[in-house]
Amino acid sequence: MADPDLDFTSGDAGASTTFPMQCSALRKNGFVVLKGRPCKIVEMSTSKTGKHGHAKVHLVGIDIFSNKKYEDICPSTHNMDVPNTKRNDYQVVDISEGFLSLMMDNGDVREDLRVPEGDLGKEIESKFFKFKKCLYKVSSADMVLFRDLTHI
Predict the structure, then answer these.
(1) What residue stretches are annotated with the Translation initiation factor 5A C-terminal domain (predicted)?
(2) 3.40.1360.10, 3.40.50.150, 2.20.25.90, 2.40.50.140: CATH of 86-148
(3) Could you tell me which of 17, 29, 37, 126 has the fewest CB atoms within 10 Å of its CB?
């Protein structure tokens, strides 16, 4: 018999965190996986076909989570992995005990994200206590979170 605790009304299809795209189809300001890290493409150049018949694409990307620069060279006809990225905007409702209370567009509240360490965390707290209204942008790619803050 079926387990009554299982809920199949929503969920994903267990899809991969990346999908393949031909290197020549990638564009500046797009996303690509370089050295195993999801990166935003900041520079891209293509060399002419050489003696062996393949044009090479030189990619320079910035890791979307750590801001480190990564480079790679790939034949233009080969596939590269592109991360499935997802971005959500939340309104900061409260900050307590080092955790953020974030409200989604549909009114649901999420309380499982810690206030980030360092300058971003200090900026979130100061903007929240100063303006009482600010948006927190959470992007996820490869099961990692990236956070950005704007006040409204």
Answers:
(1) 84-147
(2) 2.40.50.140
(3) 29
